[in-house]
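By convention, each integer encodes one residue's backbone shape. The lines below illustrate.
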Amino acid sequence: MKAFILDDEASAITTLSLMLKRYIPEITEIQSATQPVPTIQDIQKFNPNLVFLDIQMPVVNGFEWLKRFPHRTFDVIFTTAHDNYAIQAIRFSALDYLLKPIDAAELRSAVNRFLMKRDDREGQNQLYKNLLFNIGAEQRNFKLAVSTTEGCFFFSTGEIIRLEAEGSYSRILFSNRKPLLVSRTLKDYEDLLNDHGFIRTHKSHLINRSCIQSINPEGFAVLTDGSQIEISRRRKAEVLTALRDFMK
């Protein structure tokens, strides 16, 4: 397997190259570059399976560089220092990123996920298209990529009424279509949707606060679809505060 590293910091390339050689034996060839502009030809000639792509680079950032490959034959793992907007766009698109300094276990996990998905070229291309959409959109308009056994779907957060835990899975309930069962935990979605108006009301429930119509006398949240969702005692004050802030 071949990997290409694009990063404007030579020291970052050296570090990642050493980590790949030590921890990722599947990768047997590595090439790299510190300048994004001339590497299009280099990439096409080298034909890597995987590109480690730095987001923050001068002249052309990682997302702009990726747009130059409308017919990619490689997958991408993004590398970045903390950049909340970029990370949110990547996570909403169900793609992988590594925070610098890169952790060896996280690197191994990201490559494992790549190996599991590498044969699904059509699905991966849809995720990258969604990423480029998200990068060009305001954060509140991001589309959430949802991968299921039925295929890959993309939704605005406004279409989601609530999410419900089912073991290590989550059931997503919508305003305009049948529910979907997804192999991601509710905690994953809580971390992802916390800044997009969703409230964890109970260990098993994550709710779009714009869909809460009222809190009934029994302490349940009454939603726009008529469902009544329990608010746990320890979360009640937090939920009420979030609703008050939302109504301001």
Notes: The helical segments are 10-23, 39-46, 62-66, 84-92, 104-117, 121-135, 186-193, 236-247. The chain has a mean pLDDT of 92. Residues 2-135 form a domain with the Rossmann fold fold (CATH 3.40.50.2300). Residues 121-135 form the longest helix (15 residues).
